[in-house]
Amino acid sequence: MAQKTSINIKPCLVRSSGPHNRRLAEYLANIRKENLYIRTELTVRNEAWVAPEIGDTSLADYYNQIAAMVKEKTGRAMQTKDRKRVNKKTGKVTIVRGSTPIKEGVVVIKEDTTMKQLQHFCEVCKQCWGITALQIFIHRDEGHYGVPGDTATWKPNLHAHIVWDWMNHDTGKSCKLDEKDMSDMQTLLAECLEMERGISKEITDKKHLERTDYIIAKQKQEAALAAKKKAEAERQTIEGENKAKEQYGLSLDNEIADKEKQLKDERKAKMDSILDSVGSIVGVGKSAAVEKENAKLKAENERIRKAFPNAVKNKVEELTKALVTEKQEAETERDRTLVLNRSLTMERDKVVRQLQEQKDGEHQRISQAILEATEEKDKTIRLLESALAISRKLLNAFADFLFHTSEVFKRAIQAIIHFGTEQHQSFFAPSEAADIKSVMQEYGETAEQQKAIGVWLCSYAECRQPFDEIKHRHTLNEVGDVAEGKYDWKINYRQNNVRL
Questions:
Q1: Which helix (H) or strand (E) holds 326?
Q2: Top CATH class, 4-83+93-208
Q3: Over the stretch 353-369, which tens digit does the pLDDT of each residue have?
Q4: N or C: which end of the chain has fewer CB within 10 A?
Q5: Distance CA 230, CA 345 (A)
Q6: Cα(106)–Cα(17) distance, rounded to whole angstroms?
């Protein structure tokens, strides 16, 4: 399952941001031990990058430089405090937020996120919205313990801090990003970091938690889950004990029932023995009844023994006659079946010969038709290959003409060559995508036609400078994305910023 990423941007606290991000000694010394969320032995894995625009200047001094720039460009002091604005007609009061020229964003990353990926994200943001990244800090030493002090329960909070200059230094005004811009920034971040985009808070209705609140909430959640698991284990143990007790009770009930039945049988046997003893004396009872039954059976057995020889003889004669008759009927049926089988075999052989003759003739006709169709196909392929070679020559000649006469066409081809030969480039810049889109729209009306134009542009670019197989496929896919409109929003942002 892909890891999710997001960015949360707020006004930068210029006094405390640097000490936290750089892990200064006085900052670490003032962290309360019960709230310790930094493992100093992991701090060596952190990374930092500082833009040339700020260099060694502190954020507080840079903030003052922005304030002086705003004063120079607009003639007014930078408004840093919130103020109320009253509509004279309706009396409605609205809050005008003060300027926050420096903002800080916290980005969720994964274990193998690189500084280069974050720098690329910042470059695209500058092209799209004009905001400038001043500092990037990757923190791999923050997190929290499931059990305080037990490193086996350590849960890392992998993230990066990006400090932005949110001002347009040409106009002295701040860059304006609405909700759609911020949503697009989340999507762009996921693409640059090769992670899954987090679900919008408009859908989840969840609020962002600050680091300490998040850790506390996470620990409460884990404690509640552990308590739930413990209660479930205790419940299952009690149920197991109750079940064992119930089984033991049933086994005792069965044992008591067996004992009672055994005792009852023993009493009955003793009573029957006593009755037999008494009955034999007076000629009644169980023994007398048995003796009468035995005498009756002996008489019947003698009668059957005398009548047995004649009955057996008669039965044998009847069975012998039946067997002879059945044998004669079976032999007659066998002879008739043999004759019928010979007739069916001759008819089957005749039909098989006819089918084989038809099959041989049909196979010969099919082979001839396949041979003729193959010859026709080869001829058509040769004609098409010849026509395709001529078309390619004409298209390349036309492309050469456009390359030397059209600046837009030339820039589009150079952008494709740069993308196809640069191993680490994953996206077209908005200006490059705009040139490629312009050529597609010039010579193609529908999306399918524009996609075909894109294939032509890639083919011509490879004629001028070959690509390897991987970059060939990647370049075709990316130019296809331009044709399908996936770069349109970047092109529109760029055009809007150029107008501004």
A1: helix 286-405
A2: alpha beta
A3: 888 888 777 778 887 88
A4: N
A5: 81
A6: 12
